[in-house]
Amino acid sequence: MKKNILLVDDDLDLTKSVANYLLDEGFNVVSKNTAQQALQALQHKHFDLIIMDIVMPSVDGYDLIKLLRLNPNFYCTPIIFLTAKGMTHDRIKGYDLGCSAYLVKPFSPFELLSIVRNLLKNFDLMMQTHVVDRDFSSINQLDLVLTRKELEVFQLVYQGLMNKEIASKLQLNLRTIEKYVSRLFLKTNTKNRTQLVKFAAVNNFLK
């Protein structure tokens, strides 16, 4: 099955060029020119990978990736920054915000293709190993006993909030939230936030 790629860049010529190249390589590509258009597209179609610029009007790539990483549906979606911002601090900020790869313009299309293929391959392996094949049903949610505060934290994690945001919302310190999240991992036999969200979805928990 062909993989779906979302390409977000306000450079129309570059977008057309990259889209055509990836189409020729067997991918389905949808191109959008603003972050707002990208968010609308993500509401109506599943994408296996996102390629985005950083410098865009209104909402830039940094803001867009923040929004995506707060959403459980896109928490682990591979995201490539394809941008002219090539300084070390730009790259660090990109990786800190959760990008999977960072490629500076001008770039080699062969390098982009290699990154795309490897990210998709690794993501598929991760899903098979840590999510799809993981038997969450072995934990009966009736046997899962959570305190009121643990349940509150679990609900906010499921909504995509990060620990600092949860701490602020519940008016608790960050270390306390980290302890609650660690307890949730232990009680649900999960290892990370992605698996925790998957546990809730598979068991129809928190709904």
Write up this protein.
- The protein is built from 9 helices and 5 strands.
- About 5% of the residues have low confidence.
- The two termini are about 30 Å apart.
- Helix 7 packs across helix 8.
- Helix content is about 55%, strand content about 10%.
- Strands 2-1-3-4-5 form a 5-stranded parallel sheet, with helices on both faces.
- It has about 210 residues and is an alpha/beta fold.
- The protein has 2 domains: about 130 residues, Rossmann fold (3-Layer(aba) Sandwich); about 70 residues, Winged helix-like DNA-binding domain superfamily/Winged helix DNA-binding domain (Arc Repressor Mutant, subunit A).
Give a brief description:
With 207 residues, the protein is an alpha/beta fold. The chain has helices at 12-24, 35-44, 61-69, 88-96, 109-132, 148-158, 163-170, 174-188, 193-202; strands at 4-8, 28-32, 49-52, 79-83, 101-104.
Side-by-side strand order of the widest sheet: 2-1-3-4-5
Structural class: alpha/beta
Strand content: 5-15%
Q: What's the helical proportion of residues?
A: 40-55%
Provide the succession of SSEs: EHEHEHEHEHHHHH
Q: Please give the radius of gyration in angstroms.
A: 19 Å
At the fourth level of CATH, the homologous superfamily of the largest domain is Response regulator
